[in-house]
Amino acid sequence: MNSTQNLCKTLLKNPSLIKSKSQAKQLHARILRKNPTSLHLHSTILSIYSNLNLLHDSLLIFNSLPSPQTTLAWKSMIRCYTFHGLFLDSLSFFTRMLASGKYPDHNVFPSVLKSCALMKNSRLGESVHGCIIRLGMDFDLYTCNALMNMYSKFWSLEEGDGRIHEPGEIGKCSNSCKLDENVAGVDRNGNLDQMSNITSDKHSKMEKESYYSRSLRKVFEMMPERDIVSWNTLIAGNAQNGMHEEALTMVREMGKADLRPDSFTLSSVLPIFAEYANLLNGKEIHGYAIRNGYDSDVFIASSLIDMYAKCTRVDDSWCVQNGMFDEGLKFFRQMLMIAKIKPNHVSFSSIMPACAHLTTLRLGKQLHGYIIRSRFEDNLFIASSLVDMYAKCGNIRIARWIFDRMEQHDMVSWTAMIMGYALHGHANEAISLFQQMEAGGVKPNYVAFVAVLTACSHAGLADEARKYFNSMSQDYQIVPGIEHYAAMADLLGRVGRLKEAFEFISNMNIKPTGSVWSTLLSACRVHKNLELAEKVYQNLFTVDPENVGAHVLLSNVYSAAGRWKDAQKLRIAMRDKGLKKKPACSWIEIKNKVHAFVAGDESHPDYDRINDALKVLLEQMEREGYVPDTNEVFHDVDEHQKRYLLCSHSERLAITFAIISTAAGTVIRVTKNLRVCVDCHTATKFISKIVGREIVVRDNSRFHHFRDGRCSCGDFW
Q1: What is the DSSP code (8-state) at residue 17?
Q2: pTM confidence score
Q3: 109, 211, 279, 389: which has the highest count of C-beta atoms within 10 A?
Q4: 457, 483 Cβ separation under 8 angstroms
Q5: Residue 522 φ/ψ, nearest 5 degrees
Q6: Nearest in space to 164 (alpha carbons), one of 219, 210, 113, 216
Q7: Which residues does residue 364 pair with via DSSP β-bridges, in sequence order?
Q8: What separation in angstroms does the CA of 647 have from each of 518, 595, 633?
Q9: What's 584's DSSP letter?
Q10: pLDDT tens digit sequence for 216-258
Q11: What is the full DSSP assignment across 591-618?
């Protein structure tokens, strides 16, 4: 019993010893039994919950405390709210703390200043600065570092959200230690209201940068004591805002102050050498990092990767970032097997995109198992990468299961899940999730709108798409980019509103690219609109004359219309220009080996077995009512030859090989580099019913899940 009491006393004196929620709960329960009325002990428990970032538990204790609450209780809640990104709540508690007569200390202001910075509210930040001066905290090292960090972030803003004051206005505050109500947006009850955006038009962006850079430098110069964080903040502020000479000068000045550059310093200056492709100086920094043991630091490694990649030394860089996914996976294996280096959370979140791009679900599952054994599954970045990987590898159910298990969601996880639903044709689920994200107070970004517009496009939801497209600029001040225009043009083309799509592209606020025109040209082929196809082709050829797909699409339109001579002229022109059509290719993974097929491919070792199985399948399909759609063959040959060409499409070869190579009931997963043709889509529906298998085909735009003679796309793709 005495040992238990001694342990509790030790933990209460050293709250940092408590590392888990269960330990905190046990200590809390003991206090409730032994000292239920102790304000000090309950405040200590509150600080422990706050240090563990347990917002709900912290708030429950705070609301149960009698007034006036202790300074420890106030600062614990302010810190916890800031950690969870609830900046308005954090600032509201700060103003309530002031109104209650409690004075903040050096542990409070860093959280408050961080909230001001991340809210991008410069006027409020300056008012807090004034409060700091009034309280005499402007000589505190940690508070000054937080001030510098805030002004550095304001400096980096492309558009300031608060009015730009003259330097002399900083620190003007009422005689009391309260925020100026007109400046801070505090009502008479001590609540923090949303600030109205007041930006002076007479100040240019350059003036804002000059103002905030002076504020940053002034705080630095007035500090009686500076540590490595102070120097790093000033160096990073200069480096991130293009003042490269000043940043490098400060590194030299830091050395004169007997402070050695650390990993943060190096990761701040390396991008300077990356931008100017200064490989020599970049290698000098690399050498310094190795000599001082910083080369294993994840931030240094990332900065070196970026520097070497931008200096065209791709072989020294991380291959995944350069699209060299196979090479990236090879290096990851070498790290595990040869170097015996245990990967951290950054390694896993970096390698997952390779699995997603290569659609290697087997390898993705192996990595997932490794992640679980390494106890990284609760890491936000890794969980988001897993959601993205499973969605792109065709298992949307597992992706959603992981998403639902996440304790919190960031923009990456929301967007990955919404885009996953979009690619799998679950438009209603994607839209519902997007609305849920908005309702939760998460502001959609550029990529989130690409995802929801893609979902609408794959389901033909034109009115909903138009609503979201308009909402971007009207509600969120996001300027539509080429991806958003492409999604809208694709949607209008899919639903047959070709003239509207043409006008939409012609009136874009940015110059249409070849990819945007290609979506409409593809729609013209589907809807057999030859006249508009020729018009679109001319526009596409103007902006992208080397676009092979444009020539092929128009050639197919001519072929479908029986204009074989025009189709032949285009193909001859392609040959004369040295342009080659990308061959249709499908691949499938069987027993840890990837098998690739191209249309008409007879080179596979098991081709004879595949061909025999295809013949049997075709007979069964025809008995079930399958009739080959020879309109999908854009060659001037007889019907018999057209039927043969259809049966030898790459995805059919891959599917048939999977049927004869795997156990009954095994899900078949095929990836194709081009769009699935209408006849293969119909044939795969019949095959799924005949063999009783689920067949998942990922083409160049979406997933098709075939089961029991039906497809998840509802025949709209």
Answers
A1: G
A2: 0.55
A3: 389
A4: no
A5: -65, -40
A6: 210
A7: none
A8: 27, 18, 11
A9: P
A10: 889 999 999 999 999 999 998 888 887 888 888 888 888 888 8
A11: TTEEEEEETT---STTHHHHHHHHHHHH
